[in-house]
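Milestone M4 deliverable, item 7.
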Amino acid sequence: MAMTAKVHTLVSGGAGRFNFYHTLPRHDRENGAPDPRYPQDHIRAAQAQSDSNTVGGAVVRSEQMQAVFRLVEKIARTNATVLIGGESGSGKEVVARAVHNLSLRCERPWVDINCGALPDHLMESELFGYEKGAFSGADAQKAGMFELASGGTLFLDEIGELDAKMQVKLLRVLDGVPYYRLGGTRKVAVDARIVAATNKNLEHAVAAGTFRGDLFHRLNQVSIHVPPLRERPEDVAPLAYRFLHEVDPRLDLGEDALNALEDYGWPGNVRELRNAITRAAVLTESWEIRAADLNLKAPGQAPAAAPELKRQLGGLEEQVIREALEKSGGRQDVAAALLGISRRTLLRRLKEYKTRVSAGADAAPVLAV
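Output delivered:
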């Protein structure tokens, strides 16, 4: 299903996004003179790669993310409350903005608040507002987030961090009960769609007694799970090119850098990938980022395996790939999907096996590339 044009405006960086490109030496960019240090064919290739497989900045190349956005399109047409789950940094806010921008409320306010960023005693005044004189320092009336989002969408990020008292008050508002501002005597009624997100398992929190079951069910009218980046390796390269273009469109990613990016586990998900690309782009001394520039090393990474153990593991990996190819009837794209890796990684593995056999290091038959 094709994504609608609204998604293009929703997940793009926006005009206000800071671009490191404008902090680098200009090299006569104003008069169009190219910098000889940056080959123009690589600039064009990097530009094309950054624009491919994306929808306005949100990568939807993998089947998992395509499924997510198909669900978003269906949900956006309704006023149902949405609960978005996923690991930290996986892109939950991008999905939340998609729900808003594809809805009939897209021209109305989008208001977001991080429920874990404010102390408990400030959350109530931020969500519900207050009247002048409600407490020391309340010199004027202030509308709360619910009022500001009326007619539009209120995004409650990290909803699992709310304390028990605020959970009760939030539940009443979600049930359509008018509320009082702090210090107020007149009830306020609002019409805001609620989209919430969390990196916690709220069902476990309900079982543990740290999150109200009735609030969970009220929020969970429709749920969306955003898969972690390690489960959608097809998105890594397009995302990397997108972030690289935002930093400096003249740069490119070398073959070894792309291999390193796809082999890494990304415990910090898309946020970690963005940081890695930004750091490498700022520090590189070449027009092409190499694997060494990325400096990817997982915390607590184990020492390199002994040669014999590596050989045994390589043999097991080859056998698994062989079985996947047999199941897929030799279709490399299907085999890659079965293995949870990108087709690019599969082709690289096949090439490695072929090279090893040709060198006489392994007696196993060569897998076709």
